[in-house]
Structure formats: structure tokens, C-alpha cells
Amino acid sequence: MNRLSTSWGEYDLTRFPEDPRDTLRAWSAADAYLLRHLAGEEGGEGGQGGAPVALDGTVAVVGDRWGALTTALAAHRPVQITDSYLARRATLANLARAGLPADGARLLTTRDTPPERVDVLLVRVPKSLALLEDQLHRIAPALHAGSVVVGTGMVTEIHTSTLDLFERIVGPTRTSLARQKARLIFSTPVPGRTSGPAPWPRSYVLPGDSGAGAGLTAVNHAGIFCAERLDIGTRFLLQHLPASSGDAHIVDLGCGNGILGTAAAVANPDARLTFVDESYQAVAAAEATFAANTARDSAAKADFVAGDALTAMPPESVDLVLNNPPFHSHQATTDATAQRMFRGARAALRPGGELWVVGNRHLGYHVRLKRVFGNVEVAASNRKFVILRAVRHS
Fold this sequence. Notes:
Layout: E1 2-6, E2 9-13, H1 29-38, E3 59-62, H2 68-72, E4 79-82, H3 85-97, E5 106-109, E6 120-124, H4 129-139, E7 148-154, H5 160-169, E8 173-175, E9 182-187, E10 202-205, E11 217-220, H6 232-239, E12 249-253, H7 259-267, E13 272-277, H8 280-294, E14 301-306, E15 318-323, E16 328-329, E17 332-333, H9 336-348, E18 349-360, H10 365-373, E19 377-381, E20 385-391
Parallel strand pairs: 3-4, 3-6, 4-5, 6-7, 12-13, 12-15, 13-14, 15-18
Antiparallel strand pairs: 1-2, 7-9, 8-9, 10-11, 16-17, 18-20, 19-20
């Protein structure tokens, strides 16, 4: 837990799921810089302090990673728009810890309709430029000539392409001086500005070397990992996709666009699929991918869940878990998510059920899997990737 001091109070904030061993903060210098600017402490023209920003109208907070901005501004009942289930849960926990009501903020996902009017738009710049583009496209119609638009991010996260998006979709854009390796972005809305049709979702057909996925259509919403093409780790697992039969319950864990689970469903039409991801964009993409490839099969069965790995899955209810785990949490490299996925998979699998994982060889997932399952074997490998198979024995 770490404390964020602001003009509105001091807040003890954590990420979600909360782990006392986690040394990563639930807020960044970029969050603190934006809050100081809103309070009139600094970050105006030339980096100097200025008048506080009026927060009387509709305040929308886009991309708040762990709820720090939303919690600090709860007195103004902000609208939070997030693509992350984990960020949403962290926000609720941080509001409760601060003694603030859960309805102190209106929590929306990136798939929900934005407010019709936004007077103050605060944007925590995401890692994905595509997600930023999509969200600015969706919220720009709600801006008016008097809207205040401020983005924030670490210097390493703000590029010329980032500023170009604000300029093209919102209006004239400039940046602040850097403070603690963070920077602010200021845009002046031009009402009615059009930047062409929304570029997402996009789709592509998997090439012939994609194993069980060859010829399938992948549908991608903005922000999905490797949304422009099939990533090579997923391709490798598709080339070695385990067979299933009958009414097996298969989970595509950390599903992204859902191509792994969809390929398993096409190979075994009697199977029941569950697609799980913490990204709302990913869950929507997986649903679209599944529909695009099983539209003619009225018996195709699937559930689509935005959640925290497999914590909501009934124990011993799954026969096969397919997993290409992430090894980043925003800009930080960590295997915490993978470990949580592995533990959740073991709890969800029936005795005899299997977890198949693909990952870069250097990540050492075999050590983690051996610790969780008591067993692990290499199903396939090449110079870059390894596919590991772990079985729940009891």
C-alpha cells in the first residue's frame, strides 16, 4: 500500500488483486502531476502554477490505471472509463478504503456509451496507441468549445504519434514541461471536428501456417495484443493445439481476440468454451471472433467473461485451459499475472484436466508450473517459444 497526497486529501492506494509483497505503486508521477495541475499548483503554461481547473460539470477520467485519479476526485463524482476489470476492482477498493461511497464515481467500461456531454476530460495515456485513438474517437462528440482536455503520462509514454492523435481528433495540442519524468498534454477541442470513420474493429484471416487456426477470421478491437496480425506465440500453440472430444469444457484464459478458443471450438463443435480476459475490449473481440467462425453452427456454446483470471470459475469444472499469459503490467515486466493464472487454472481444472501454456523460453514458466501442479512437461519447443503441459492429478 502506498499513500498519495493531494489537495483533496491523502489516500492509501493499492492495485488489484492486493498483494502485500507487490512493490509496484498504485499511482504514478503522471497521476500526481495531473492532480497538482487541476488544483492549480503547477503544470500551466511554461510549467508554472495557474488557476485551479473548474470541476463543476461532467468530469470524465479515461484510462485511470488503478483508480488513483477517480478516488482523489470522488467529491466531483467523475465518470471513469476503463478497459481493465482489475482497474475497476482497484477503484472500488480504493474508494472504500478512503471512506468514499461506491457511487462516488460512475464506472463505465470502454464498451459502454460515453456521457453525452463532457466538460473536463482527463486521459491517462495508455500503452496502446490504438486504444487511445479508439477512445478519443468515441468521446470527442461529447466535447464542446469550453471543455478542458488534459492528458498525462510518463515521458517515455508520450510520443509525437500520441500528440498527433490528440491534435487530429480533439484539436490544437501542446505539452507541459516534464516533472519527475512525467508530462501533461493540453488539447483545445474543436467542436464538430471529424477525423474520418472510427478505425476499429479490424479483422484478418489467419495464414495457412497457423495450424488449427488456418483460414479462421480474427476480429480485433483496439488495444488487443497483436491486433494487426497473429502473434508468433499464439501461432505456435495453434500449430500444436491439443485435441478434445465430446462436451469438454475448454477455457481460453487471457483470451485476447479469442482465436485459441475459437480454433478449439471449430475442431470440436461439441465442446463448451469459456473466454476470459481482464480487458473488456478483448472479451468483445473474442465474442466477435467466435461468432465470425461459428455462425453456421447453431450448437456452438460459449461464455465470455471479463474477470480476474479464473477466480469466478467453479472449482473442478474445466477439462482444458489454453493460455498465452502476458508478462507486462502496463510498463512493468512481471510474472505475477501468469502465476495467478496458473494457480487459478489448477483450482478450476478437474482431476486429469490439463493446462497448456505457451511462452518465451527465457521466462521460465516450467518452474512456476512445477511448483503449482507438481508436474510439467514440454509439449513442443522452438528457438523462441516453449509449450508446456501441466496436469492436475488430484
